[in-house]
Amino acid sequence: MTTKEIIETIGITSFMFIFTLVFAHSHRIFKKSTLSSYLKCFACGVIIAAIIFDTARDLYEDQDFKGWCSNIGPLSAGLSFLLLVWIDKLYLAINQGEHDSVPEDISLKKAVVFVLALSIHSFLEGLGFAAKSNKRNDLGCYLLVILGHKWMEAFALGVSVANAPFIKNTANWLLILYSALTPIGMIVSKMILIFFNKHFKEMILCILTGVSTGSFFYIGFVEMLHSEFEEHNHSKSNSKKTRSKLAAITLGFASMAVIFTCLGATIGLD
């Protein structure tokens, strides 16, 4: 790693840690009503566009592998997606709620499961960093997707920990640990690339790209999109709300699509 890359990595991981920790403690200031459903839908549209225009494409570009190795990127994407779905659904089976909602009167056991599930999820998100950091456009897209949902996730975790019967110091340390896991995943992904030779480095980079893509699929389609349309109430007011949500998703997708199109026309997407 060059000095510039080291400074950049330190800066990004430090910002990610502070950003997450601030929103994990923001429940002390903001109320539940400040979690905008429409903002979440807009972010979902942005993530879907990022998957289509950027991350999914990277799975099949610049690969010199043959045979089964040629599918190692898509395989990694599928496995990481399924792992996150397992974590999500196993948690939901215990807690009977959605993990980006704000839990009320949560028990100690449920809070621990919640923290563990989101912590593993956060670490996996961080592992995609090295695969994106070599390309400026990809890095910007990666950070936008992560930050676009991290604030909601951190807020919900902060509320669940605050409502659980944790000792104050324990609660604070849990939030610090959770906030650090995405940056730790980023650093680990960088270190892996440093200590392997060229052939293994390319394979690991391909795997990390798959992990990143699978994580984005989960964030966009399971964590954000699905949770916004789980209601089965077909009242007139709910239909209007659904149309507004769909409009927000479309606007988010269109905004990101325009950005990618303009970038491709002016400087070219790597």
Brief description of this entry?
It is found in: Membrane. This protein has 270 residues and is mainly alpha-helical.
Structure report:
- With 270 residues, the chain is an all-alpha fold.
- The chain has one domain (39-230, 238-266).
- Helix content is 77%, strand content 0%.
- It has nine helices and no strands.
- The chain has helices at residues 3-24, 37-58, 72-95, 108-126, 129-133, 136-163, 168-194, 198-228, 236-266.
- α6 (136-163) runs antiparallel to α7.
- The longest helix has 31 residues, at 198-228.
- The protein is globular and about 55 Å long.
- The model is unreliable at 266-270 (pLDDT under 50).
- It is found in: Membrane.
- Keywords: Membrane, Transmembrane, Transmembrane helix.
- This is Zinc/iron permease.
- GO terms for molecular function: zinc ion transmembrane transporter activity.
- One of its GO terms (cellular component) is membrane.
Output the keywords.
270 residues; mainly alpha; 9 helices; globular; disordered C terminus
Radius of gyration: 19 Å
**Main sheet?**
none
Helical residues, percent: over 70%
How much beta, percentage-wise?
under 5%
| Classification by helices and strands | mainly alpha
Helix/strand order: HHHHHHHHH
Report the average pLDDT across residues: 75
From the N-terminal CA to the C-terminal CA, the straight-line distance is: 21 Å
Low-confidence stretches: 266-270
Supply the number of helical segments: 9
Total separate domains: 1
Count of DSSP strands: 0
The global form is: globular
Protein name: Zinc/iron permease
Transmembrane segments: 6-25, 37-53, 73-91, 111-130, 142-162, 174-196, 202-225, 246-269
Subcellular location: Membrane
GO molecular function: zinc ion transmembrane transporter activity
